[in-house]
Amino acid sequence: MPILPDSFAAELAQAHASVPDALPGAAFCALADGLLALLFPHRAERPLATADAVASELYHFRSELAILLTKVPSLPAPAGALADEFTAQLPALRAALLRDASAILASDPAAQGIGEIISSYPGFYATALYRVAHALYQRGLPRLPRLLSEYAHQRTGVDIHPGAHIGPAFCIDHGTGLVIGETAVIGANVQIYQGVTLGALSVTKGLQGQKRHPTIEDHVVIYAGATILGGSTVVGAHSVIGGNVWLTESVPSHSRVYHRAHINISRSVDPAAELVFSI
């Protein structure tokens, strides 16, 4: 077995020494999961019995968040102050997520109730972690919001950049393969199915900081596999975008945009013969 040269070990040592301290990514993601279990007892292994127990857990969450934030370099404010700001936002966060869960319940005939959605729907879970990450992103925290969004991506197949702006009553149905870019703006009561991409027409680095992803106005439904690209692309309110549509220009409100596929099906006279489908 060949022995690696000492110079390679020295090169790796220099690389390790040149990077900043590792972020507490795993602990932070675990804390986010614990927060969802605190906000929604349907996600908890054992619901808390009293208000004092809940208050104690809220205090513990705030303390743990502050400790983790002290390990993050280049914070925009002291860790304790950021933890206080985020904790104060928890009532609004819970209310927003309950609206999301209610929107899913209203649109999905298979849903048996809010509890089922909160405890088991990947679309709700991805939205919940997005809203947590977005709140941190708005406060200028480096790297942690992105780590949290990638954690949700790994668990659900839903990739939402924490910089995206998503309005109330957001409904992700199924969700696998869904991609929402950093500068996307989504209004209220929007429903999106699996495989949808809200992306950029170009991904050159020179576009950093510019509006690259589309705007989706209120009460829009986007069906599976649709791709909507471009920072100037606006889907008007109350529109329906059909499955597999490729859209790079704006459409007015109350539009119906769909892809018309031509499908031929033929069959031999002999039922035992091989079936041939041309799609």
Question: Strands, helices and their partners?
Answer:
Blueprint: H1 6-18, H2 25-39, H3 51-69, H4 79-88, H5 90-107, H6 114-120, H7 122-138, H8 144-156, E1 159-160, E2 165-166, E3 171-173, E4 179-180, E5 185-186, E6 191-193, E7 197-199, E8 215-216, E9 221-222, E10 227-229, E11 234-235, E12 240-241, E13 246-247, E14 256-257, E15 264-266, E16 276-278
Parallel strand pairs: 1-4, 2-5, 3-6, 4-7, 5-8, 6-9, 7-10, 8-11, 9-12, 10-13, 12-14
Antiparallel strand pairs: 15-16
Helix pairs in contact: 2-3, 2-8, 3-4, 5-7, 7-8
Organism: Hymenobacter negativus
Protein name: Serine acetyltransferase
Keywords: Acyltransferase, Amino-acid biosynthesis, Transferase
Rg calc? 23 Å
Shape: globular
Counted by DSSP, the helix tally is: 8
Unreliable spans = 275-279
**Protein structure class:** alpha/beta
Main sheet characteristics:
5 strands, parallel
Query: Beta fraction of the residues?
Result: 5-15%
Quaternary structure? single chain
Helical content band: 40-55%
Q: What's the total count of β strands?
A: 16
How many angstroms separate the termini?
53 Å
What's the overall average pLDDT, rounded? 92
Record the strand order, biggest sheet: 1-4-7-10-13
Q: Element order, helices and strands? A: HHHHHHHHEEEEEEEEEEEEEEEE
Protein name: Serine acetyltransferase
Keywords: Acyltransferase, Amino-acid biosynthesis, Transferase
Organism: Hymenobacter negativus
